[in-house]
Amino acid sequence: MPQNIDSILQENRLFPPTTDFAKSATIDESKLQALYQQAEDDHEGFWASLARDELNWDKPFSTTLNSHNAPHYRWFEDGELNVSYNCIDRHLADKADKTAIIFEGEQGDTRHITYAELHRDTCRFANALKAQGVETGDRVVIYMPMVPEAVIAMQACARIGAIHSVVFGGFSAEALKNRIDDASAKVLITADGGHRGGKIVELKAAADKALENCGESLQKVIVLKRTQHDIPMKAGRDIWWSDAIADVNDKCTPVSVNAEHPLFLLYTSGSTGKPKGIQHSSAGYLLGTIMTMKWVFDHRPDDIFWCTADVGWITGHSYVAYGPLAVGGTIMIYEGAPTVPDTGRFWKLCEDHKITVFYTAPTAIRALMKSGDEVPNKYDLSSIRLLGTVGEPINPEAWMWYHEVIGKARCPIVDTWWQTETGANMISPIPGVTATKPGSCTRALPGMALDVVDDEGNSITTPDKGGLLVIRKPWPSMLRGIWGDDARYVETYWGMFDNRFYVAGDSARRDQDGYFWIMGRIDDVLNVSGHRLGTMEVESALVAHPAVVEAAVVGRPDEIKGETIFAYVVLKGERPADGIDDALTLELRNWVGEQIGAIAKPGNIRYADNLPKTRSGKIMRRLLRTIASGEEITSDTSTLENEAILLQLQGKE
Ligand code: WTA
Predict the structure, then answer these.
(1) What number does the ligand 1 atom closest to the CA of 416 have?
(2) Does 442 sit in the ligand 1 pocket, CB within 6 Å?
(3) Are 69 and 82 in contact (CB under 8 A)?
(4) C-alpha 333 to ligand 1 mean position (Å)
(5) Domain 48-53+82-337 belongs to what topology?
């Protein structure tokens, strides 16, 4: 939720970990201080020793960090390993029968998968991929419901060194097509459908539509039977998952890849119309997820770890598919919506599966909070020992509810700041040590050189003064680039300060205790229900509609979603009377849904004859944001080329 700075500045409640939690936590104050000290004294040595201790290498590395071609950093570059081996095989000696995945479908069907079974299923599917022609380095797109096979598909790619690109199942055919083409993917893995909100998500139908105009690269589609409803299969192209694994071996030797070998691409929104394919490495990425499982989530062998994110987002990569498995944990996967059959579903799942660590987004907390305390109070939540949030700033009110009603004031809350690009948590409390403040993600983790700087790049030391959030030193789980667009990588993240440090795109401040408070994006990226969306992306979708000449999109503060999309649209024909045209609005919303996905549908559309522009033709977005939030315009508007348009935009004409 966009922060109301005045109320947050007054936020000074402090919640130290309970004595019980602190006593049993794996990291105490002195251990934490030692970690900070080691990282401070020898940044590379610190990461090198963790990489040696925490990862199983096929060939050990001798160089820790290569900065010669900065900002193209390379970590552990002459080492070799396999990520799937590190997530699965290495646990088989002592955890073969331990549950790796607990699954529950929206309709209540459940499965438990042990590490031995996960190993077998991953091997078989890896062999199936090979049989379909997938080789090391090939790109494989995964467009799946939230079922164990999504994780198995990711692990199988990692096992043979294929680069996966997971596309969130809520994205449209068009978005899927663009991602397949951008990565020149060879194989698509999908399902007949998924269960969500009591309905079937027609994944295969969307995939078929995407493939109608896809480029040449895509050769095969592997289809998991999940919903069992009738779907067409295209001969020669489509193969059922069950057939693909029918005649293959149960053993698949993991392929040793270079530490820097791309593990995956994940497309995320930026300031332009085209999402960028964020490229992650193998070793550095995995190390980041492992360390944060230990430091932030205080991982214990008997934990049942539930991160509610879909594997279509970075959170579902790092804290469902990779991190928790790499530490030999047990994860929960739930397929459906939090409101089916009612708003108690999450809490029922916590009770039924004895969840110990629960990690979700503020938007979900706010939505569930709305249904009242009596809903969670019906369930036994005593197994939970640690709570987490991610994706957007959490407003203190939601934080307090999470703390009191879900955590019963026993459980620390880790508010984790990070990004698709950072690969793993960067700023977060250490649960047994850090005293938390509602709404602050507190301090940077050891080895993560976060800072707040002014426009010249100078560190801001004045408490509560806002600036740009930057990262001063490279870190192992950092992105390695943007797929196929190196210039954009350098420009977006490093250009502002001549490659000296990474610019996160967020503004932030630090309080008198040095705690970080994230204030929001500085670029044209919106945060709708914790998901990143580019304003330009939505604008491009709108102007692609034949009726639209121009569109400007801004975020409007929303109690539950954080932000919703407010679009101002100039039509080719006449402006509708009073700026209202419900039929067209419905059509445009669906149109955007088809171009991008349902999460990108504008909540509001207002029609105008023109948009507010400066004399040089720049759209005044700040002004549009003010109007969208229903606030009065107090700034000087005389520099506008067309000041009169404001009345129309405000809906007053
Ligand atoms: C925002 C999600 C405040 C931020 C892991 C960031 C947050 C963007 C937090 C990345 C947090 C994420 N507090 N803001 N704890 N976590 N953000 O790439 O604006 O989907 O830049 O990664 O979400 O979103 P992304």
Answers:
(1) 15
(2) no
(3) no
(4) 22
(5) Rossmann fold (3.40.50)
Distance CA 90, CA 520 (A): 40
CA of 518 relative to ligand 1 center, distance in Å? 9
Q: What is the DSSP string of 450-477?
A: EEEE-TTSPBP-STT--EEEEE-S--TT
- Could you tell which of 392, 420, 515, 519 is best to mutate to test the pocket of ligand 1, judged by most ligand atoms within 8 Å of the CB? 392
Tally of CB atoms within 10 A around 17: 21
Give pLDDT, residue 1.
Answer: 40
Residue 615 DSSP SS3 = coil
Domain spanning 525-649 has what CATH number? Answer: 3.30.300.30
Q: Over the range 57-73, which residues count as b (16 or more CB within 10 Å of their CB) and which as e? A: beeebeebbbeeeebbb
Distance CA 443, CA 91 (A): 32
Q: Is 392 in the pocket of ligand 1 (CB under 6 A)?
A: yes
Please tell me if the CB atom of residue 418 comes closer than 6 angstroms to any atom of ligand 1.
yes
pTM of the full structure: 0.95
Nearest ligand 1 atom to alpha carbon 389: 15
CB of 604 within 8 A of CB of 568?
Answer: no
CB 249 within 8 A of CB 127: yes
The CA 368 to ligand 1 mean position distance, Å, reads: 20
Q: Are 451 and 465 in contact (CB under 8 A)?
A: no
**Domain limits, the chain:** 48-53+82-337, 525-649
CA dist., res. 297 & res. 448, Å (int): 17
Query: Taking the alpha carbons of 309, 182, 193, 587 in that order, is the dihedral positive or negative?
Result: positive
CA 623 vs CA 521, 618, 626, 627, 653: distances in Å: 17, 12, 5, 6, 17
Position 3 confidence tier, pLDDT thresholds 50, 70, 90: very low
Nearest one of 454, 519, 523 to 488, comparing CA atoms: 523
pLDDT digits (tens, 9 = 90+) for 156-183: 999 999 999 999 999 999 999 999 999 9
Is the minimum distance from the CB of 375 to ligand 1 under 6 angstroms? no
Using CA atoms, how far residue 48 sits from 37, 164, 334, 605, in Å, is 15, 27, 36, 52
> What SS3 class is residue 437?
coil
Of 527, 529, 561, best ligand 1 pocket probe by most atoms within 8 Å of the beta carbon: 527
C-alpha 420 – ligand 1 centre gap (Å): 8
Rounded Cα–Cα distance for residues 620 and 646 (Å): 11
- Ligand 1 atom closest to the Cα of residue 518 is 3
Q: Out of 29-43, 251-265, 596-610, 619-633, which region has the weakest mean confidence (pLDDT)?
A: 619-633
Nearest Cα to 431, choosing from 439, 442, 423, 420? 442
